[in-house]
Amino acid sequence: MKSGCGVYSNDNCGDKADWSSPRIYVVWPNATVPFYINPEHFDHYQALTIMSALTSFAYQTCLKFAPSLTAPKDGAHVMVFENPHGVRKCVLDTEGHPRDDAHRVILGYDCLKSPNIDMVLMRALGFPFEHNRSIRDDHIQVLFENIETSKFNLFLF
Questions:
Q1: Torsion angle, CA of 93/128/10/142, rounded to 10 degrees?
Q2: What is 6-126's CATH superfamily?
């Protein structure tokens, strides 16, 4: 990736996202992702775990992560790590992200370890799952009739 690494989101976010529409790229200027860890949702140790994962990710990629010490204001383009309902399991948001607002990443407490946190982070940044690669069908046959309707969009390119 080059400077200004892009992250996609759907133009039409929310419950009625149109996954057949082309993806819109969100650019993090200078490949720097500002982030905020909600202190009401994560204790000090959990926040350090998230920061450690971000540091490891930055070391292996062109991305840089810059902490925001205050809660983002409306319209701020910041990745926000939160868990407002105290869920334990990993939650992957497949609805996309708005281009001009915070990217909200729900991190369940069971996700605060590798490889789960890495998977959620990569998905939040716009990286597709391996089973979404364009060469997938050269190697496996996906039986779409066996996929739950709510998970179908995870198997589209």
A1: -90
A2: Collagenase (Catalytic Domain) (3.40.390.10)
Question: Which element (helix H / strand E) includes 6?
Answer: strand 6-9
Supply the pTM of this predicted model. 0.69
Token pair belonging to 80: 């926000």
57-82 per-position pLDDT tens digit: 999 988 999 999 999 988 888 899 99
Q: What is the DSSP letter of 82?
A: E
The domain locations on the chain are 6-126, 130-157
Long-range (24+ apart) CB contacts under 8 A made by 21-30 are 24/99, 25/126, 26/77, 26/97, 26/99, 26/103, 26/126, 28/4, 28/63, 28/77, 29/4, 30/3, 30/4, 30/64
Dump pLDDT digits (tens) for 89-121.
Answer: 877 654 556 667 788 888 999 889 888 888 888
